[in-house]
Amino acid sequence: MVTHTSSSIATIALKELFSARCKSIDAYLGTCLQTKNIPDKLRQAMEYSLLAGGKRLRPVLCLTAASLAGCQPDAVLPFAAAIELIHTYSLIHDDLPAMDNDDLRRGKPSNHKAFGEATALLAGDALLTEAFCLMTEARVEPGKCLLALREIATAAGPEGMCAGQELDMEWTGTRDVQLKDLQHLHRLKTGALLRASCTSGVLLGSDDRNLYGALSQYGAELGIAFQIVDDILDEVADPETLGKPVHSDRDNGKTTYPLLCGLEESRVQAHNHSQAAQKALQDYTGEDQALLVYLAQYVVERVK
After folding, report:
1. Residue-wise over 70-100: b if at least 16 C-beta within 10 A, else e?
2. Pick from 105, 107, 79, 108: which is nearest to 92 by CA?
3. Going by fewer Cβ within 10 Å, which terminus of the chain is more open, N or C?
4. How far from each other are the two terminal CA atoms of the chain, in whole angstroms?
5. Torsional sign, CA 58, 74, 21, 287
6. How is the chain split into domains, by residue range?
7. What are phi and psi of 207, to 5 degrees?
8. What is the pLDDT of residues 232-243, one digit of tens each?
9. Which pLDDT tens digit goes with each residue over 149-199?
């Protein structure tokens, strides 16, 4: 006879809620480009990367933060799913020969290997711009949608992801990158969109500044934990699990947490930031708060 503690039952319920929200996002992503008048090859390239799988962490964060702020998840689904379009565009462009020059993504040939560099560039551009069209389809007050949209645009632009990618390229192959520099790069390249996924969700539903501040802190800490884990996995995971070649960061001359701190200290730091993310939510309760806590734990589970 199998027995479950109340804690394990709660965890199962949260996994099911995470899975349900991922499925709703996947269903939306599977059809959101179908009604658009897009040339066949460009649509194929966009969907090739968009529908290739992934954790859907960013849109789930947005849905969950919005729900915590009083929105029905279905009402903000287009906005949340659009964040995945932006994330996907960034992966397509990061893989290009002019950037990280990666041949594999999620176990498949990267977009430029499948469709050519020119179409891959256009697929990324098209996903980025289409994302903002989809965001306007959220069923919320226009003013709230505009504030949330600005939050995402700032995180994705020259003060966020693009800045982080530029610094990543500038610092590749150099040996004088310090831990504070690496942390700054990660806050921009990875952390900005993760944080904005949370804060934009709050803005869609509420003008509660305390909730905004808590989710901002949560998202920032989660972003750091997430990137440290990515750095660790590049050292210890197998290619099948990672979906791309291992040791690519080291081989390309990138500075990582394991390089600066060692693997064990990197694991400690990842868990510390996960704990800090969870602590940021201590004044809140309910299913959505519990799911956000679970996601902070989920991010670091792979490197226990």
Report:
1. ebebebbbbbbbbbbbbbbbbbbbbbbeeeb
2. 105
3. N
4. 29
5. positive
6. 6-303
7. -110, 25
8. 998 887 666 655
9. 999 999 999 999 999 999 998 998 887 889 999 999 999 999 999 999 999
From the candidate CATH numbers 1.10.1040.10, 1.10.600.10, 3.20.20.60, 1.10.357.10, the one assigned to the domain spanning 6-303: 1.10.600.10
241: tokens are 């699990």
